[in-house]
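Q: What structure does this chain adopt?
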Amino acid sequence: MKTYHLKGLLQQKGWLLDPFVTINSKGKITKIATSGISDEYINGYVIPGFQNAHSHAFQYAMSGLAEIHNYQSRKDDFWAWRYAMYRVALSVNPEQLESIATMLYVEMLRNGYTSVAEFHYLHHDDKGLPYTNMSELGERLISAAKIAGIHITLIPIFYQKGGFGQPAEAYQRRFLSKDVDDYFRLLEDSIKSIRHYENAQIGFGIHSLRAADQVSMKRIFKEGPADRPIHLHLAEQLKEVEDCINYHGERPAQWLLNQGLLNERFHLIHCTHLNSKEVKGVAESQARVVLCPATEGNLGDGLFELRSFQNRGGKWSIGTDSQINLNPIEELRILDYGQRTKTHDRAQFTSEHQGDAGKFAIDMTWHNGRIAMGEKKSNFLTVGDFLDAVILNANTPLISVSKPETILATLVYSGQTSDLMGTLVNGQWVIKNQKHINQDAIQTSFIKSMGQIKIR
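A:
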């Protein structure tokens, strides 16, 4: 048992000031009181840890590799970017992947994420052959999460085609499942892998409509693990929409809706090119959208119809995707400011029940991020929950002069990673004063691995 005395604790109804929070040996909150005896005083405001609902860990090794542009030779768009990504995917061995992912997860923790949904499609060796343990690389990601101390939901992804009705390319050979039965064997091994870490869960999904035939997709959605979240890239690029129309005769989201496939278990990534009918249909299906604003901007994807989706009751979370940005506060700002520029209206993160844009953003991303992880919790930082939290330093200039009712808006719109005192996972410090408890060893391993990688 341990009791923290906090400057403030954010709960669903607002701030509880000067609370005493007791946790058990597993890091779950057993008591919240207004008085008591503490083991440690934290001069900070404690908010729930951010949820990263979409991550490709291996792409952390791409830093800078896709930003050297030869303007005269070709158009540098999403489809060209993919070849830089493929080159990295073909160059990383299991040990290197584990070192890269561990460093990545440390940086996520440093920026305030306490959970990550790993959309995992790097399955085979560099020749495209499966490992004896089909979940060898998924197991490396689980190990990385355990070393870093972050909650992880491993989402092994079915990948079969190179495009609508097109065979896969040689560059994609590490991603591919021969058929649905082959994918289900991968999924079975992945379920065994999560048993190595008590803070790991499983999800499943399909890379995109262009990466699988419709018979396979329907079978996976129907026969996949019951009550687990389903993740899927959708309508990220205009060409993807055009190709889907040419192949299926319908736009991507409309095809899913007309097949009767969407429900509350689905987490649709990007959705930057939905029309108004699709926005309405997705919202009404109760499927959630995962937005990755920094990546969507970096790749030139486009802007999601956020206001229209929210007005129809649509729910969303955020993710880091290509790891071009690991700061959830910046993700929220990019999302909001893109919408403000598009609509010429500043009130994007609001609803009829919530006018505080900072609180709205925290609520939306946490609740729907938790569901993307496979959790069903409706309230944060209450008795029975793990104490997974980010601590805002009460002594930083802007936080120190903020009233409780403006702290979250100050964080979301003016905050920096340097304003964070640290991160708790299961009630234990994993980041303190901007440094991971095992920073030096993890960073040394990462530097060594990056030095060994020869990008093909």
